Amino acid sequence: MSIFRFQIILPILTTLLAPSACFTVPLSHSSISSSCTILQMNKRRSAPRAGGGGFGRKVTSVNIKTKKPNPNFVYAGDLRPYPQSPPRIVDPSAVLAIPDYAIDGIPKNKGSSTTIEIKSEEDIVKMREAGRAAREVLDIAGSLVKPGVTTDEIDAAVHQACLERKAYPSPLNYRNFPKSCCTSVNEVICHGIPDMRPLEAGDVVNLDITVYLDGYHGDCSEMFVVGGKEALDEAGQKLIQTTYDSWLTAMQACKPGVDYNVIGNLIQNYITPRGYSTVRAFCGHGIGKTFHTAPNIFHYTVNQPLGEMLSGHVFTIEPMICEGLPDPYMWSDDWTATTVDGKRSAQFEHTLLITVDGIEALTGKLESSPLQFWEKESEIHKGIWLGTSAAAKARAEEVNNAVGSS
Asked: How far are the Cα atoms of 61, 143, 148 from residue 196, in angstroms, in the given order?
């Protein structure tokens, strides 16, 4: 699950425009005003409110504040919010640990903004367990992506799968987020809230799963196509393939001694010649006992040193790549970020560990995981990728042999 990197204050165009003209002006450096709803790009979220719920409340309704859609809101694309079910309950006795924000929605331990923690052997063991659990839950969620299924049904399955693993679904009540996972469809860049909209053939869906298991978070996301590859147009296939290959290119380069700026440089250099843009307002992050901590992982070119990777660093890489403009446009729920021009976006994410001889995906696929068309057709690595360390390569060979024979 990405974090909001920074606030961009954009000038407001104050000329009078008819509603039908709301999207006729280039929007990468301006927003629209007056007779139509202002496009509030990169809107700062309101401060979390105390009194939220989300787990262990033995009541019929949980006190997570959710906003009703604004009937006058101007949407960038075709997607619209649908009704949401109430937030799901977590009985504290059903999980090994709960995060510090579970009751009131406010994270207490924010970690360092500058110092990157080197995980201990015990930390790494726990993070492997959390990463595997997150992968198992993501695979379960992905298996439900079919025409007619709602993202609320997927959220219910995610919630149950977390509890079956004695894990807390990390997004639930994090800064008052009302659901147990993020489901971002078509033009939604990230942080889509599961609702009652039935999925349609040809939709592209990012499922973002984070679990909190025994005191540690494991975070991953992946694209899914409703109806499979044959239901998706060529442009959508190219978007997903380019996003996946740019992500692989960046991960392949990670090892001790490499500067963190290499990640964004490689991603932007890969996608820009192919006609895509990379979102700057959200970034990857360090992760462990704390959901979001140092380092910030930028998915665009940064022409200054950002610090060296060291063995024991754990972080996410999660580029958000767009068909059109990369500026996010926030819905009135203060969470859903869509592209400002209504064009599609794609994203992949792993929780990653720097080892002495490379990098390893702690949320890597399993023998039971599906092999997707972008993995089969990748220009960077064909088959399931689990890392560049000797152990990760050996494990990947086992998994690919199992997947190939299934």
From this structure: 18, 18, 10
CB contact at 8 A, 268 and 398 = no
- With a CB cutoff of 8 Å and minimum separation 6, the contacts of 405 are none
**How far apart, in whole angstroms, are the C-alpha atoms of residue 138 and residue 126?**
18
Mean pLDDT of the chain: 86
Sign, CA dihedral 356-359-362-366, equals: negative
Strands 31-32 and 12-13: parallel
Instruction: Tell me the torsion sign for CA atoms 97, 99, 103, 109.
Output: positive
pLDDT digits (tens, 9 = 90+) for 80-138: 999 999 999 999 999 999 999 999 999 999 888 889 999 999 999 999 999 999 999 99
Q: How far is CA 255 from CA 300, 312, 318, 376, in A?
A: 19, 11, 17, 25
With 60 as the cut, is the pLDDT of residue 41 above it?
Answer: no
DSSP 28: S
Q: At what angle do helices 151-164 and 121-142 cross, to 10 degrees?
A: 140
- Quick check: 290 and 111 in contact, CB under 8 A? yes
Q: Are 334 and 46 in contact (CB under 8 A)?
A: yes
Q: How many CB atoms lie within 10 A of CB 274?
A: 13
Q: What global pTM score does this model have?
A: 0.86
